[in-house]
Amino acid sequence: MWCKIEFNMFKIGAFSYKLDNFQNQNSDFNENDTALEFNTDNAKISKQQQQPKSVPLKKLLAMKNVEQKILNEKKYGPVTKETIFITIQVHNRIEYLKYLIDSFRNAKDIDKALLIFSHDVYENNINELIQNIDFAMVMQIFYPYSIQLYPNVFPGTDPRDCGRDIGKEKAIETDCFNLQYPDTYGHYRESKYTQMKHHWWWKLNRIFDELKVTKELKNFILLLVEEDHYVAPDFIYIYKRMQRSLHLECPKCNIIALGTYSQTLDSMSYNQIEIAPWTTNLHNMGMAFNKTTWLKIRNCAEYFCTYDEYNYDFSLQNINRKCLKEKLFTALIRGPRIYHVGECGIHHAKTNCDVDNTIKRIDMDIKSAQRDRILFPEDLEIVSTNLRHPTNPLINNGGWADKRDHCLCLEMTANKKNDECHKIFPATNDINDL
């Protein structure tokens, strides 16, 4: 099997894509130059997919990723080592995003933050909402291998790909493109699921290793938020207090978690810290870690990129169990300062969703905490410490067996090369990193 992808002009991370005549911003792309092409022994592909509608957008987003514009920098900048770095992964659920931004607006010290919105969909109404933020510095970055940009070719869904439930026998009969790569459960890839993991990995590589504003910072901490989260007014205060206290009281803690699915913010939990080995379904909301921890994670990229698991957090768990010498330890605030409000979305079958009622319940929780004067606590208390890492076997969810996904993920990883993937995605050594 061999695959090929050809790009040669702009490089974001370790993966490159072509922008013809970039200096002339009004020029059009040659769509044949920008499409992705793969060739395999079981599928003869010689003609690239033409996508003229999406070609100008590829150029626009490439330019924005190169520009790295920071909004409101004159008012709240410059970015320094004291800046609070928060990244928000955004798809297209603007109703959730509006609530998240409103909650940011009400948070103390948000003016000291740089909010980095990472998008896999380009929509004018979402951009307008973000660009109207006037209470903090803002940057937008755009995942460059999205389904929106490549709807009918990998990393999107090629019409020649095998359907999810086609089965191996039918796949062989139809000679579909990726018949050699069913997952653990006999299913074939679905791009709407693989995109989430790709985007999450690209975003971290981009922010920690490539942005001009972070490249010179030695060991900044990045807080990870998603579009369907909602923050309490004291989330930054708690975040900073945890950083300071854990430096002395839990030096082995390398992840902070500000969200939890099971607890409420009340007079018992408001200042309680729980120390435990990082566990995906307990500690994956409102995570924060520094560049030192990121570099250790990045060095285990194969355990993330080639693991048959479409969820980023379960893939991170695989890294933690099988690769990291110094395991991930979490400090979790039991009284949550980040809430999950996304009752509908790609992971949820529920269709009758009422985000307004969800927000009302959370606001009641927060207002009750304000009345009880338990926000902005003077002291944090470590009430539970568990240093034993689980030994039960990991169970993967599949959805990530296609070699093309493995290679795309690895090639987006800074300083991480795979010999097989190096042939699939030829290096462009004459191009400077952005």
- Morphology call: globular
Structural class, by secondary structure, is alpha/beta
Helix content: 25-40%
Q: Order of strands across the widest beta sheet?
A: 5-4-3-6-10-8-11-9-13
H/E topology pattern: EEHHHEHEHEHHHEEHEEHEHHHEEHEHH
Q: Unreliable stretches, pLDDT < 50, 5 or more residues?
A: 1-52, 426-434
* Fraction in beta strands: 5-15%
Find the count of extended strands (DSSP E, 2+ residues): 13
EC number: 2.4.1.143
Enzyme class: transferase
Subcellular location: Golgi apparatus membrane
GO cellular component, one term: Golgi membrane
Question: Overview of this structure, please?
Answer:
- This protein is an alpha/beta fold and 434 residues long.
- The chain contains 16 helices and 13 strands.
- The chain has helices at 31-34, 55-67, 73-76, 94-105, 124-131, 168-174, 191-209, 212-215, 235-249, 280-283, 291-298, 301-305, 312-322, 355-371, 403-411, 419-424, and strands at 10-12, 15-17, 84-90, 113-119, 137-142, 221-226, 229-231, 255-257, 272-277, 287-290, 329-333, 338-340, 381-385.
- The strands form three sheets. The chain has a nine-stranded mixed β-sheet, sandwiched between helices.
- α4 (94-105) links the parallel β3 and β4.
- α4 (94-105) packs parallel to α5.
- It comes from Chironomus riparius.
- It is found in: Golgi apparatus membrane.
- Mn(2+) binds at residues 228, 340.
Topology:
Blueprint (H helix, E strand, L loop, with lengths): L9 E3 L2 E3 L13 H4 L20 H13 L5 H4 L7 E7 L3 H12 L7 E7 L4 H8 L5 E6 L25 H7 L16 H19 L2 H4 L5 E6 L2 E3 L3 H15 L5 E3 L14 E6 L2 H4 L3 E4 H8 L2 H5 L6 H11 L6 E5 L4 E3 L14 H17 L9 E5 L17 H9 L7 H6 L10
Parallel strand pairs: 3-4, 3-6, 4-5, 8-11, 9-13
Antiparallel strand pairs: 1-2, 6-10, 7-12, 8-10, 9-11
Helix pairs in contact: 4-5
Protein name: Alpha-1,6-mannosyl-glycoprotein 2-beta-N-acetylglucosaminyltransferase
Family: Belongs to the glycosyltransferase 16 (GT16) protein family.
Enzyme class: transferase
